[in-house]
Design goal:
It contains 3 helices and no strands. The chain is 61% helix and 0% strand. The chain is mainly α.
């Protein structure tokens, strides 16, 4: 199995990329937080994004 690529970002890049991912899903960070609290995500992509970014924003 090939190694997974590692992407290093500074905090500003992290926020920018997280916000771009939220925009692609048509969600605000608050929407995603509520879905996490309810444990009811609108899509698999939303759940995966929460696993990735969690409470980092």
């Amino acid at each position: 199995m090939p190694d997974s690529p590692v992407v290093v970002m500074n905090p500003a890049e992290w926020r920018e990329n997280a916000q771009a991912a939220l925009k692609r899903l048509g969600l605000s960070y608050e929407d995603l937080q509520q879905q996490a609290r309810d444990r009811n995500f609108v899509s698999t992509a939303a759940r995966k994004l929460w696993v990735l970014i969690g409470d980092t924003l």
